[in-house]
Amino acid sequence: MRMKTMFIATVLALCSGSSMATVTLDGHSLTFDEAWRVVEGEEVVVSKEAIKLVKDSYGFVMSAAKNGAQIYGLTVGVGLNKDVHLFDAHGEMTPEAKTASLAFNKNIIRADVVGYPPYLSSELSRLAMTIRLNTLLTGRAGVAPALVERYKDFLNKGIHPLIPSRGSIGDADITLASHIGSVMMGEWRAEVDGKIVDGDIALKMKGLQPYVPEGKDGLAVISTNCVGMALTMDAMRTFDHVLEVSPYVYGLTLEGLNGNVSPFMTATVNSHPLTGLKEAAKDFRQALKGSYLWELDDTRYLQDPLSFRTTVYTYSEAKRAAEDLRELITIQINNSDDNPGVVANLTREELNEMKNNPQCGSYLIEVDGKKGAIIPSANFEPLPLAIAMQRATIAVAHMAHNSTHRTMRLDEDRFSGLSRFLASPENKLGHAFGATEDTMVSVYNEIIDLANPVSLHGTPVEGNVEDTSSNLPRVAQRLKKACDNMIDLYSMELMHSTQAVDLRKTKNPNVKLSEKTQKLYNAYRAKVPFFDHDRNYTPALLAGIDILNTIDLTN
Fold this sequence. Notes:
Elements: H1 10-15, E1 22-25, H2 32-40, E2 43-46, H3 48-66, H4 95-110, E3 116-119, H5 122-136, H6 145-157, E4 159-161, E5 164-166, H7 174-184, E6 189-192, E7 195-198, H8 199-205, H9 217-222, H10 226-257, H11 266-270, H12 277-287, H13 306-309, H14 311-333, E8 341-343, H15 348-356, H16 358-361, E9 364-367, E10 370-375, H17 383-411, H18 413-416, H19 436-450, H20 472-507, H21 515-525, H22 538-550
Parallel strand pairs: 1-2
Antiparallel strand pairs: 3-5, 4-6, 6-7, 8-10, 9-10
Helix pairs in contact: 2-5, 5-6, 5-10, 10-14, 10-17, 10-20, 10-21, 12-14, 14-17, 17-19, 17-20, 19-20, 20-22
């Protein structure tokens, strides 16, 4: 997997009529791969079935409003102002009612444009819009079809609103997602064709008129977790990459130690069949297939330090955390997080519950013979995702702990059987890798800090109505940073393990690496030669990071 920054120059080709692959969104089947293909510039197409659903839902909402239904964010205010009646159509959408609705829609977007930089990259701006477009296609937001078209135009024409990354407490990114709506109205700023321009200029450059939000459009634009989810998917991608390279980094270090393969033998993990442990052990066995470690060596210690022996457990739990997080992300980006939720076509079970329970029945609305509902909800709550990400970050911290201590054990001659701090024979009076441990522990400490559960940090806002928060964007940013730091640590471990392997070969010329660890070793040594004397180590760390972020060890 390649983790280089993904550029979106291909978006420009869309505007010149070039033939491009397309991604079809339908509100319920968006995959990780498809989302990133849109980020890379593939054209977005909306399924006909989804468009019909959006139209039906919009028609239901507007008819309900016209007939006097109280609808949060449409006929009444939001937050503490939910007791304020914006208008009452009394069976007819009068010019006064329409004027009040249009003013409310513009103002709810403008009043929430309040965020701090740094801004999301254009790639993540595209991802946020892709996620929101897909969730709108569920029909549960009740927005105008024209709003769906505007999201699609922004993606296909390459208009990328500047979206701040700071300012959301995570229960709907109202203060961040609002910047998308602002640009749609011809305000704020956006990146277009590599230039930052004012919103009105961005629209003119792509032949669009300012959008006039109506109905529930304004609320739908801001009341979404699409920004936090874009950050979450970005963190997930980096987490996946850390897991991908982990068996090979560990394998090369174990070969440098002349360590024991017993912790991940089949018979070992079968004796303790925790969920995922067998699969994790198999990853390690495959990474070390063909290694000299499987050959008998009477000088090999019976048991290695715990940082080596328990790595299969930390890796296994990190993989479990990734699987759970991926499942929740898939649900989140393919379903509605809108409040209130519009259900234009109730199932029989849903309808029966409403008929049999007066409170539930109060949300039932019949329009033109069709029974639906507009229901207050907490579907904007992304806490399950925040908790899952915090679990993932804690798992990364445990992986960092093992990596840090594995690396330091290589430096200690009583464990490795090699020279102290892995000094070369020519460097007896030098310092070798002694000081590198300070840097490594510093980065490890950063990861420990990032693993603290910030979803618990919150203060009631907006008149004490909104008295819980998930801090989803911050949680996602912390997982992403922890994973980036993990690659930094792996670069340090790689610098030590390759040195250890070379020193070990001077003792035992028959040392043979596995096919995959040999590939990693060769890639590293092509850029970083053996340390036969003290020299600057920072260039080696940077080279290691680049290698780990670009090498493909899965093939």
